Amino acid sequence: MYSQLTKNEKIIKLAKIGNSWVDTLDSFELISPIDGRVIGLIADCGPKEALQAIDASEEAFELWKATSVDTRYQILSHWARLIVEEKNQLAEIMALEMGKPIKEGKKEVDYAASFVWWYAEEAKRIYGVTIPAPVPSKRIVVLYEPVGPVLAITPWNFPAAMVTRKAASAIAAGCTIIIKPAERSPLTATFLASLWDKAGGPPGVLQVLPTANPERLCKVFFDDFRIRKISFTGSIPVGKAIYKEAAKTLKGVLLELGGNAPMIVFADADIDTAIREAIQAKFRNAGQACVAVNRLYVEKKISEPFCSKLVEETKKLVLGDPFLPSTDIGPLVGEQSLQKIHSLLADVLEKGGKILCGGESQGLYFAPTIVWVSDPSARILNEEIFGPVLPVIHFETEREVISWSNATNYGLASYVMTSDLKRAFRLSESLRFGIVGINDGRPSCCQAPFGGIKESGIGREGGQWGIKEFLETKYLSFNLD
Ligand code: SIN
């Protein structure tokens, strides 16, 4: 289906509903951020398709939950193998639809596949428990059962990994899943669904419904009692709206919302490590990640040498065509992101800040930028940037930097650079975030819990935690009298 895909062709994509690839009456144009070209006409699913998908999901659920864990393991691991085999193709699709550089896209495919491998194994470890009963004639057994059909609303910034992180854990648990991919990245999701088919995935277990009108489509899912869990990655306002909608039929929610990650660099840190990890944590995916460093606090006594080295390393990053193997940073995903970055920079400059490198843009291509901040009230320190701009500000005491770091409603990721073990523990325990990277700017991996506290979300994806989100606890009481 995708074998003809090249940089210069237009593709028509369908939705995956039940066992079929269906065409819809309406379609929408998919525009590449590389050059603004229309690269595809995408199925625009609406209420009719949503109902068909829920029916198929419910029907498939009865069969899938009864399917042995060995079969779940076989299909999921076959899916993972196919994903890795199609690494180049997937990286090209991502480059085309959301601008991720090919070399980074390939890493994302490995990351995406790692969740499928992990959950293929995890399916076998949904252990129940027996508990000593209060009376000799009774036996207590606790089982875990899949919650039911799931709706996943996935983001454009990691269009492969966020699909597999949600889908593999739900499917391993015995759930069926309907994916509503971001309007900007429907092709990656539908391609993954075609690989699911190839891997022998049964009909109705994984469906993909792209749309240009998410509110109209998702209303049907929100209102339908049969959908028992919603897994969403995206913004805080949308997450809150989904939480409200889910309450109407008391669906479970798994919400991965935004971040405003601080990175704190102490004078005792290994500076080369701190710079390498800062670059990694900021410029991965052109800064378009919820866990991206959003503000860097550097201890005053090292701020000058630190900044000059940081600028030197940032200037080495290559901005350009995501299809070129040398490119580190591709275009931003859209005009809105560009406007936001320009307005944050204008604000910081008005408040006495200074651009140390970058700052310029051409079309959606924004140069990797380091900006010195002198006023802590600058918007750039307090709002999610979602772009390749790193604000740096100095601090003098540990106590002050902890309080600045925590002064946010966000609570996803945070980073500490230090060689002092006692300080590392103190900071890890003081920072109010779901993730703390200690001398580590890239803590995400399939084995670990990913998720935030405060307004950054509810629940965890990844590792042993991710599968539990899709399981209900059932208690059996045997009276043997
Ligand atoms: C995200 O920031 O949206 C996800 C990135 C990750 O999984 O590391």
Automatic annotation (TrEMBL):
Q: Is Oxidoreductase one of the keywords?
A: yes
Q: Which Pfam families match?
A: Aldedh
By its UniProt entry, which InterPro entries does this protein fall under?
Answer: Ald_DH/histidinol_DH (IPR016161), Ald_DH_C (IPR016163), Ald_DH_CS_CYS (IPR016160), Ald_DH_CS_GLU (IPR029510), Ald_DH_N (IPR016162), Aldehyde_DH_dom (IPR015590), Aldehyde_DH_Superfamily (IPR050740)
Where would I find the Aldehyde dehydrogenase domain in this sequence? 21-475
CDD domains xrefs: ALDH_F5_SSADH_GabD
Q: Which UniProt keywords apply?
A: Oxidoreductase
- Entry's Gene Ontology molecular function annotations: succinate-semialdehyde dehydrogenase [NAD(P)+] activity
Q: Where is the active site?
A: 256
Enzyme Commission code(s) on record: 1.2.1.16
> What does the sequence similarity comment in the record state about its family?
Belongs to the aldehyde dehydrogenase family.
Name-wise, this protein is: Succinate-semialdehyde dehydrogenase
> Native species of this protein?
Methylacidiphilum fumariolicum (strain SolV)
